[in-house]
């Protein structure tokens, strides 16, 4: 009944229905409580006339079978390829396409109800009936059909489970049993519209194909349940799938519907977590016009993405593929949503476009026993009374049944031009999605939905009086219950069917099970839907699949190799970036690294900056060329000093040796030998003990040399000054005083070094700061003050020597040792004055080399300037090595 036929009843516990006398010709026979108390009355023609509405056509045919409980069903048996706006002035465009798959879904529902009715262990005292209507995958049509199911629409043909046609508002009809639960609809958007309309009446709606995650909101849709998993699980799987193959730059398209909008929104949110970006997001209308397809394909062509994820139904995908085929747009990898992941009809004319398609399909039932026979049990004589099947028969065999009202045209010829059906047609002779039971996915969902209702009714029947879940522990009557009471048991349902445990979470969603499908070409060119086995999912997935292009890459920016990092481009998606080499001292050992990591203090990145390797340890080694040269020079200097000692010892009785203060000369040669050998302490890998010896040895050895020089200079100067009559100078500067002066001059240096060693001694240090890729093993001075005091004291001794030698510059030429001392000290100064800036500006092993070079250069300067002239006279000019010659002016 529509709202003009309904009359509200004033009801209490003791009274029958009382209806306004103006609207009835006789008392209400009974009251029915599908959503409250409502009267089913017969209206007189006179009273109905003012309320009648002019109708623009006939009601859509339906399929009905009576029972104690009638289950409503909504299936998209037709759909219209182009949506037309409703003007309410003309009849809407009739749906023109038939869904063979939806017919199979419908038949699965009737089969499941028949199977349950034949069982003795499930609802033995209750007969299930069905009332199935065509939703046309359209909200207005589906809403109207659902209201007719909930109302129990008047039947034009009494007591017959067949087709009905509305006969206006006349009351001379028999009412059908109200459907207290509806299985449907297929579309998420349609289901949402139904729930918003029927939700206040608490009529349960169980969908077999609506997957929108928005429907999991129990606060908004408390009466909704489904045997189809929520998109939330599929979307996560899709994001991980494209990431697995490195497809981080994907196009996302979808039909203009709640299903696609929520799915794409969820995918965009999920993809951010996995580093996948949408090159574009495009929605197209349900009825794809030529302009809409052109706009969509232009978007696809304008971007570099080669992977397309499409959230739509089979019909929209068909139109898109047709235009792509015309434009010869190939080389794309399609990712299918569950809505078309197993649609074999798409393959017929677009195999070259769809080869390699991937998609997650809902779990398939291996087999539903008896369903294939039920589907095939159609003969021309048996289908006249079922309009849906009669239409399908005519379209499948391109013939005309007697008395058919089918006016649809699918391109196989008009109804008038078709030949009459022979009556010998057999479904086994042709292929049709209707009879194809190899991919029972949605059909299996329908099957489970029916069993969900059946097991809920079984639980309701098992309720014991006084132990019920309702007010005052009451139970519901399985033959006369309210919809919300059935919903209570449905929410708690937990059953097993075909070996699968079926249960639901708090949102009314089932546990998600998906099959990853790969579209491959069969031996005969047909579509081979290959399920990827679980063993592949966890190992070598790419080896189990077939792609549109084996070398397919779909990225906005190429992967950043190890040794570089990602630098985001401002204002662009996160998948669009530049690759920047890691900074000095940093490395990255993974592809597409967001940041480079610093190497530890003892390591340094290699040239590719993808690995940290131990830093090169640097010190002045004996084995390298520079070390060999310095070592040879040190040994040579020490050897020359020893040779001169030998020469002087051999000629110790000659005038030249005796005249030059033989004892101080021998001491000076010994100390110079030590200075040469001290240079060797600066070679090799520094250690703690070596560093503590190195600097004091250097300072003390040179203090000894310069103290000896100072004593020799004083002796020379005093010797000539003592020739003056009555001069007592030499008496106060004899041999003992000379030794004491050397000892005194050296003692000051020893004290400085001792204090240095006690306070802040030199130590081995691993310098990691001077050169980032090298660890310099060096001797740190410990105290800079101590080092410069040692060096400064050597400079003081050298200055004193220079001043005294300069004062002796006018001594006799044949015995002018002071002149040679002056030259040696000038060389000494030149070396060490040059050493200071070089020492301050050099690092690593080179500073050690400079130090050793300064030691050797100053030692050689002293040795050669002072002793080379004497050796020349001793060895080559022996005639000059006499007292007479030395005393000459």
UniProtKB/TrEMBL annotation:
<feature type="transmembrane region" description="Helical">
    <location>
        <begin position="787"/>
        <end position="808"/>
    </location>
</feature>
<dbReference type="InterPro" id="IPR000068">
    <property type="entry name" value="GPCR_3_Ca_sens_rcpt-rel"/>
</dbReference>
<keyword id="KW-0325">Glycoprotein</keyword>
<keyword id="KW-0807">Transducer</keyword>
<dbReference type="InterPro" id="IPR038550">
    <property type="entry name" value="GPCR_3_9-Cys_sf"/>
</dbReference>
<dbReference type="GO" id="GO:0005886">
    <property type="term" value="C:plasma membrane"/>
</dbReference>
<protein>
    <submittedName>
        <fullName>Olfactory receptor C family, x3</fullName>
    </submittedName>
</protein>
<dbReference type="InterPro" id="IPR017978">
    <property type="entry name" value="GPCR_3_C"/>
</dbReference>
<keyword id="KW-1133">Transmembrane helix</keyword>
<dbReference type="InterPro" id="IPR000337">
    <property type="entry name" value="GPCR_3"/>
</dbReference>
<dbReference type="Pfam" id="PF00003">
    <property type="entry name" value="7tm_3"/>
</dbReference>
<dbReference type="InterPro" id="IPR028082">
    <property type="entry name" value="Peripla_BP_I"/>
</dbReference>
<keyword id="KW-0297">G-protein coupled receptor</keyword>
<feature type="transmembrane region" description="Helical">
    <location>
        <begin position="846"/>
        <end position="875"/>
    </location>
</feature>
<feature type="transmembrane region" description="Helical">
    <location>
        <begin position="625"/>
        <end position="651"/>
    </location>
</feature>
<dbReference type="Pfam" id="PF01094">
    <property type="entry name" value="ANF_receptor"/>
</dbReference>
<comment type="similarity">
    <text>Belongs to the G-protein coupled receptor 3 family.</text>
</comment>
<dbReference type="Pfam" id="PF07562">
    <property type="entry name" value="NCD3G"/>
</dbReference>
<keyword id="KW-0732">Signal</keyword>
<keyword id="KW-0675">Receptor</keyword>
<feature type="transmembrane region" description="Helical">
    <location>
        <begin position="820"/>
        <end position="840"/>
    </location>
</feature>
<keyword id="KW-1003">Cell membrane</keyword>
<feature type="transmembrane region" description="Helical">
    <location>
        <begin position="695"/>
        <end position="720"/>
    </location>
</feature>
<dbReference type="GO" id="GO:0004930">
    <property type="term" value="F:G protein-coupled receptor activity"/>
</dbReference>
<feature type="domain" description="G-protein coupled receptors family 3 profile">
    <location>
        <begin position="626"/>
        <end position="889"/>
    </location>
</feature>
<feature type="transmembrane region" description="Helical">
    <location>
        <begin position="740"/>
        <end position="759"/>
    </location>
</feature>
<keyword id="KW-0812">Transmembrane</keyword>
<dbReference type="InterPro" id="IPR011500">
    <property type="entry name" value="GPCR_3_9-Cys_dom"/>
</dbReference>
<dbReference type="InterPro" id="IPR004073">
    <property type="entry name" value="GPCR_3_vmron_rcpt_2"/>
</dbReference>
<dbReference type="InterPro" id="IPR001828">
    <property type="entry name" value="ANF_lig-bd_rcpt"/>
</dbReference>
<keyword id="KW-0472">Membrane</keyword>
<feature type="transmembrane region" description="Helical">
    <location>
        <begin position="663"/>
        <end position="683"/>
    </location>
</feature>
């Amino acid at each position: 009944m529509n709202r003009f036929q309904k009359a509200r009843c004033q009801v209490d516990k003791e009274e029958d229905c009382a209806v306004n006398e103006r609207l009835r010709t006789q008392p209400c026979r009974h009251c029915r409580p599908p959503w409250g108390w409502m009267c089913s009355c017969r209206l007189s023609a006179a009273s109905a006339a003012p309320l009648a509405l002019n109708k623009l056509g006939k009601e859509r045919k339906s399929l009905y079978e009576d029972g104690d409980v009638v289950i409503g069903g909504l299936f998209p048996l037709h759909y219209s390829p182009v949506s037309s706006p409703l003007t309410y002035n003309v009849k809407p465009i009739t749906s023109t396409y038939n869904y063979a798959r939806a017919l199979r879904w419908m038949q699965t529902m009737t089969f499941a109800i028949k199977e349950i009715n034949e069982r003795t262990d499930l609802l033995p005292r209750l007969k299930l009936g069905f009332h199935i209507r065509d939703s046309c995958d359209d909200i207005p049509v589906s809403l109207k059909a659902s209201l007719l199911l909930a109302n129990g629409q008047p039947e034009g043909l009494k007591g017959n489970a067949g087709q009905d046609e509305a006969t206006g508002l006349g009351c001379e009809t028999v009412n059908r049993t109200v459907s207290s639960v509806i299985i449907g609809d297929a579309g998420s958007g349609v289901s949402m519209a139904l729930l918003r309309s029927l939700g206040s009446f608490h009529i349960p709606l169980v969908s077999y194909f609506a997957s929108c995650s928005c429907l999991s909101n129990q606060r908004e849709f408390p009466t909704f349940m489904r045997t189809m998993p929520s998109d939330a699980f599929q979307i996560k799987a899709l994001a991980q799938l494209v990431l697995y193959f490195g497809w981080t730059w994907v196009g996302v398209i979808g039909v203009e519907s709640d299903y696609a909008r929520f799915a794409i929104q969820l995918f965009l949110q999920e993809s951010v977590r996995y580093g996948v970006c949408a090159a574009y997001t495009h929605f197209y209308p349900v009825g794809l016009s030529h302009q809409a397809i052109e706009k969509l394909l232009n978007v696809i062509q304008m971007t570099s993405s080669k992977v397309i994820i499409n959230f739509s139904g089979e019909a929209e995908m068909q139109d898109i593929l047709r235009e792509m085929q015309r434009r010869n747009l190939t080389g794309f990898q399609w990712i299918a949503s569950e809505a078309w992941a197993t649609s074999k009809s798409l393959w017929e004319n677009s195999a070259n476009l769809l080869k390699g398609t991937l998609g997650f399909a809902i779990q398939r039932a291996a087999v539903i026993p008896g369903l294939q026979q039920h589907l095939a049990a159609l003969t021309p004589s048996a289908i006249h009374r079922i309009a849906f099947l009669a239409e399908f028969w005519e379209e499948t065999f391109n013939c005309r049944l007697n008395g058919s009202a089918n006016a649809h045209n699918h391109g196989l010829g008009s109804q008038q031009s078709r030949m009459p059906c022979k009556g010998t047609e057999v479904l086994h002779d042709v292929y049709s999605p209707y009879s194809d039971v190899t991919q029972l996915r949605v059909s299996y969902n329908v099957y489970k939905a029916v069993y969900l209702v059946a097991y809920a009714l079984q639980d309701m029947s098992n309720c014991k009086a006084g132990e019920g879940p309702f007010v005052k522990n009451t139970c519901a009557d399985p033959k006369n219950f309210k919809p919300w009471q059935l919903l209570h048991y449905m929410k708690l349902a937990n059953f097993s069917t075909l070996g699968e445990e079926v249960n639901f979470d708090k949102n009314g969603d089932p546990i998600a099970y998906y099959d990853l499908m790969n579209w491959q070409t069969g031996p005969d060119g047909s579509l081979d839907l290959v399920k990827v086995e679980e063993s592949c999912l966890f190992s070598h997935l790419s080896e189990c699949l077939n792609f549109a292009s084996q070398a397919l890459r779909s990225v906005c920016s190429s992967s950043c190799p190890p040794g570089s990092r990602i630098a985001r481009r401002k204002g662009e998606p996160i998948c669009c970036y530049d690759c920047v080499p890691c900074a000095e001292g940093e490395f990255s050992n993974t592809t597409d690294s967001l940041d480079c990591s610093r190497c530890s203090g003892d390591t340094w990145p290699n040239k590719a900056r993808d690995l940290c390797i131990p830093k090169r340890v640097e010190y002045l080694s004996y084995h390298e060329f520079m070390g060999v040269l310095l070592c040879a020079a040190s040994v040579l200097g020490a050897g020359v000093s020893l040779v001169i000692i030998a020469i002087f010892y051999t000629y110790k009785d000659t005038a030249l040796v005796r005249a030059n203060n033989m004892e101080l000369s021998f001491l000076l040669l010994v100390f110079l030998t030590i200075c040469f050998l001290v240079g060797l302490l600066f070679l090799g890998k520094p250690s703690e003990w070596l560093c503590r010896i190195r600097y004091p040895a250097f300072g003390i050895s040179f203090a000894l040399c310069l103290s000896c020089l100072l004593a020799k200079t004083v002796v020379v100067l005093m010797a000539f000054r003592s020739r003056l009559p009555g001069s007592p100078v030499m008496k106060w500067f004899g041999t003992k005083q000379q030794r004491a002066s050397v000892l005194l001059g050296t003692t000051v240096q020893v004290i400085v070094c001792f204090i240095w060693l006690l306070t802040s001694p030199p130590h081995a240090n691993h310098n990691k700061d001077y050169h980032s890729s090298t660890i310099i093993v060096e001797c740190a001075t410990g105290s800079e003050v101590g080092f410069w005091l040692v060096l400064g004291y050597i400079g003081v001794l050298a200055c004193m020597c220079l001043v005294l030698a300069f004062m002796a510059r006018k001594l006799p030429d044949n015995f002018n040792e002071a002149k040679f001392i002056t030259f040696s000290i000038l060389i000494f100064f030149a070396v060490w004055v040059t050493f200071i800036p070089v020492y301050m500006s050099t690092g690593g092993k080179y500073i050690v080399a400079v130090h050793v070079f300064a030691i050797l250069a100053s030692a050689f300067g002293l040795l050669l300037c002072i002793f080379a002239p004497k050796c020349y006279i001793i060895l080559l000019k022996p005639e000059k090595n006499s007292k007479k010659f030395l005393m000459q002016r």
